[in-house]
Design goal:
This protein folds into three domains: 158 residues, Beta-Lactamase, CATH 3.30.450; 89 residues, Helix Hairpins (Orthogonal Bundle), CATH 1.10.287; 142 residues, Heat Shock Protein 90, CATH 3.30.565.10. It is α+β, with helices and mostly antiparallel strands and 464 residues long. It is rod-shaped.
């Protein structure tokens, strides 16, 4: 379970949030410490300035009234402010009834400047904890008077620490609450994300075992997971179609191979066993054996060509091809069959363009189209072979007066081993189309039932 995406995704998410929260809390705490220290020192300086002015006025009155020391309600001020007040400076006689605790420079560990306000840390003799302090000079007669001492306002550093601890505890509570909320959200999002991924993983396992009729989950909202699910569904469908085509291919090939082999085996057995004794019958059996062997060789060649085309492992030459001479050659191949069957067989050449392509492959395509036309054209019908050239392309049309092809069969006739009458291998047109595409061209079909068919081969004059 620890290695599953459902666990690692929220765990990583939580770890990232926890690390970010920890770093943020440390930064916030550090900033708060600096802020509270600066604010406390500023408050102490302001308080020391005001109290020093009051004490200085009290000292002036004491001097005017010939008192030994200025009177100052230090205890009440300490109670009101929560801070401690100290005095560093000259002594008053008799006694030191000023109300302030007197310290020396040795007690505070700092040499106070005569005219400057200072901030520092020290530990008073009667205390066992550090204090933050601000000192302000005491003057007789206002800002320009004589400095007779310094007033010190001190605050325990523990108060700042208490504020930091309070902030830290609140940050910890907020951090824990945030982790719970984020954890719940991460768990929810993890299930939303990993659910389809795990379903796709299960579907992939089934596909790997050869079961292509898998139930691929539909991911709402689209996104990358939805795109992956849709593409996986398409892949499974294509694999199922490929398996079906492979199965049909093997069945068709085995059937097509079995038919001529059965005929050859039967006639050879009859000749070997002496069943056929008449010379003419024997000659006829041998002709059948030769014809079926030729048919078998042609079928094997077509299957190999189709396999090479599907695997893109065939070689296409690049040479100059005289289309006029090539069409003459293709036309003459079927001329005798046309004469024998009484088919009106015409050829029309609009010029004799020279293209850069593979001459043997182009001849193979045209021959397959003519063979298909002669197969479906009835005796006494008409077949036209036309060549035109325009706009950098060469067009070869093969038109016949056969029964025509319905619109629902326009795509099927280009599938391997598909035939409407069950005769032939059904490989001629698929091979022709694949070769046309390999040469940078295409085959177009214009046909309706009862109107005949026109197959058009379109090739570029120069293959890119």
């Amino acid at each position: 379970m620890l290695n599953s995406l459902r666990f690692r995704l929220p765990a990583l998410f939580l770890a990232g949030i926890a690390l970010a929260g920890l770093v943020t809390s440390l930064i916030a705490l550090r900033l708060f410490q600096d802020y509270t220290r600066n604010e406390t020192l500023a408050e102490l300086r302001q308080e020391a300035r005001g109290l020093a002015q009051l004490y200085g006025e009290s000292a002036v009155r004491a001097s005017d009234e010939d008192k030994a020391a200025p009177t100052f309600a230090a205890a009440k001020l300490e109670a009101a402010t929560g801070d401690l007040l100290y005095y560093v400076g000259q002594t008053f006689s008799p006694g030191e009834d000023s109300g302030l605790t007197r310290l020396t420079s040795a007690d505070i560990g700092v040499q106070l400047q005569g005219t400057d306000v200072m901030t520092f840390e020290f530990e008073p003799p009667s205390e066992e904890r550090p204090f933050l302090a601000a000192s302000h000079p005491l003057r007789l007669g206002g800002d320009t008077g004589t400095v007779f001492g310094h007033l010190i306002v001190a605050k325990p550093k523990a108060e700042l620490r208490d504020a930091w601890v309070t902030l830290l505890s609140r940050l910890a509570v907020a951090f824990l609450v945030g982790l719970v909320v984020v954890g719940a959200l991460a768990l929810y999002l993890s299930r939303r994300l990993t659910g389809p991924v795990l379903a796709l993983s299960d579907a992939a396992d089934e596909v790997a075992e050869g079961r292509y009729d898998v139930d691929v989950p539909v991911v709402p909202g689209g996104g990358e997971i939805g795109h992956l699910s849709e593409r996986f569904r398409e892949m499974a469908l294509r694999l199922a179609e490929a398996e079906e085509r492979e199965r049909n291919f093997l069945m068709s090939v085995s059937h097509e191979l079995r038919t001529p082999l059965t005929a050859i085996r039967g006639h050879v057995a009859a000749l070997r066993e002496g069943v056929v004794t008449d010379p003419e019958a024997a000659e006829e059996s041998l002709e059948i054996v030769a014809a079926e062997a030729e048919r078998l060789g042609r079928l094997v060649g077509d299957v190999l060509d189709l396999a090479k085309l599907d695997a893109h492992r065939f070689t296409v030459l690049t040479e100059e091809v005289d289309m006029g001479r090539l069409l003459e050659r293709a036309y003459s191949t079927f001329a005798e069959e046309a004469r024998h069957r009484g088919i009106e067989y015409t050829q029309e050449l609009d010029g004799a363009p020279v293209i850069v392509s593979d001459g043997d492959r182009v001849l193979q395509i045209i021959s397959n189209l003519l063979s298909n036309a002669f197969r479906w054209t009835p005796d006494g019908g008409r077949i036209d072979l036309e060549l035109t050239s325009a706009n950098g392309t060469v067009t070869i049309d093969v038109a016949d007066t056969g029964p025509g092809i319905g619109l629902d069969q326009h795509d099927r006739i280009f599938r391997p081993f598909w035939s409407t009458d069950g005769r032939g291998t059904g490989l001629g047109l698929p091979i022709a189309r694949e070769l046309a595409v390999a040469l940078g061209g295409r085959i177009e079909l214009d046909s309706e039932v009862g109107r005949g068919s026109r197959f058009r081969l379109v090739l570029p004059e120069r293959r890119s």
